[in-house]
Amino acid sequence: xxxxxxxxxxxxxxxxxxxxxxxxxxxxxxxxxxxxxxxxxxxxxxxxxxxxxxxxxxxxxxxxxxxxxx
Length: 70
Known about the structure:
By secondary structure, the chain is an alpha+beta fold. It contains 1 helix and 5 strands.
């Protein structure tokens, strides 16, 4: 099961000062813990284009894909 921390910031900007409406996904190193594999995942999204529902979908689909790899 993924445990997640969802961050959302309204003021992120690109280098040219435009609003950044793209998601930023950061994944850390995975580690095996018995029969489970843990991997930290963080997503930063602009609340103007997505909310908790969309972040939840992302993590659900990610978990389904990772479960398929087993």
